[in-house]
Amino acid sequence: MPLPRYPRVQVRLQQEVDKVVGRSRLPSIEDQLQLPYIMSFIYEVLRYTSFMPLTIPHSTTTDTSIMGYTVPKNTVVFINQWSINHDPTVWSHPESFDPERFLDPNGALNKNLTTNVLIFSLGKRRCIGEQLSKVQLFLFTALIGHQCHITADPARPVTLDYHYGLTLKPHPFSIAVSLREDMRLLDVATRPAGAEEVQAEPSSHS
Ligand code: HEM
User: Fold this and answer.
1) pLDDT: is 203 or 149 the higher one?
2) Is the ipTM of this complex over 0.95?
3) Please, what are the domains in the chain?
4) Where does heme bind (predicted)?
C-alpha cells in the first residue's frame, strides 16, 4: 500500500536494490546489511501503520505498580502500541510517512531508533515470530522492489486509512502490479528442485 501511495519511496527502494543486487540475480538474505533503505522502509511501515495497535490482553496475577500507578491483581492490561509508535516526544512528525527517519547522516540504519518501534509487544509473552517476520518482510519487500512496479488506479487514489479491529485492515483498494522485466529470474527461483534432472532423464518405467 505505501508503495503506490508514495511513488518516490518506491523508486528509491528500486534504485537501492538495483545498485546492490544488480539485475542478473534475485535479492537474498545476505544482501540485508547492504540495503538500509529497504529496512528503514519496513520499520516505517510497521511504525506508521501500527497495524496491530493493541497487544493481546493479559491479566495481572498480583497487586503491582508501573511508573507509580497502582495496578491491582486481576486487572486486564495491554499495551497501546499505536500510541507508542506515534508519540511526538519520540518521533518527529509522527503522522508523516518518512522511511528516511531511520537513516543516519551516513545513510546507515539507525538501530537505536528501530528499537523504539513497538509492534511485536514486550515482556515474556512478546511475539515469538519477530525474527522470522523480519526476515520474511525483508525478502518480500526486496523481491517486490526488484521485480515489480506498483501503481494506483488514478480513478481511486490509494489512502492508508483503515478499518478498526484486532488488526487494522486497509480500506478496499485498487492497484496495478507490473513486472519490471521478464519472468526469467522468477521462473528459475520457483522451478521445483531437480526439475531439470527429471526432464533430462525420464523414468524408465514411463
Ligand atoms: C509482522 C508480523 C507479526 C506481528 C506484528 C506479530 C505481533 C504479535 C503480537 C502483538 C503478539 C501479542 C504478544 C502479547 O501477548 O503481548 C503476538 C503473539 C504471538 N505471535 Fe506474533 N506477530 C507477527 C508474526 C508472527 C509469526 C510469523 C509467528 C509464528 C511463526 C507468530 C507467533 C506468535 C505467537 C505464538 C504468539 C503468542 C506468544 C505468547 O503468548 O507467549 N507471530 N504476535
Assistant:
1) 149
2) yes
3) 2-200 (1.10.630.10)
4) 127
Tell me the three-class secondary structure of 26-84, residue by residue: CCCHHHHHHCHHHHHHHHHHHHHHCCCCECCCEECCCCEEECCEEECCCCEECCEHHHH
At residue 206, the pLDDT reads 41
Residues 165-180 pLDDT 10s: 889 999 988 999 999 9
Asked if residue 112 has pLDDT above 50, the reply is yes
Does the CB atom of residue 19 touch ligand 1 within 6 A?
Answer: no
- Taking alpha carbons only, the member of 78, 83, 51 closest to residue 163 is 51
Chain-centroid distance, C-alpha 46? 6
**Which mutation among 127, 138, 140 tests ligand 1's pocket best, with the greatest number of atoms within 8 A of CB?**
127
Cα angle 201, 186, 99; round to 5: 155
The answer to whether the annotation marks 148 as part of a ligand binding site is: no
- Average pLDDT over every residue of 88-94: 96
The average confidence (pLDDT) of the chain is 92
The rounded distance, in Å, linking the Cα atoms of 95 and 91 is 9
185 Cβ neighbours under 8 A, 6+ residues apart? 25, 26, 147
Is residue 98 a contact partner of residue 104, using CB atoms and an 8 Å limit? no
52 lines ligand 1 (CB under 6 A): yes
Strand-pairing partners, residue 151, are 176
Angle 53-140-96 (CA atoms, 0-180°, nearest 5)? 45
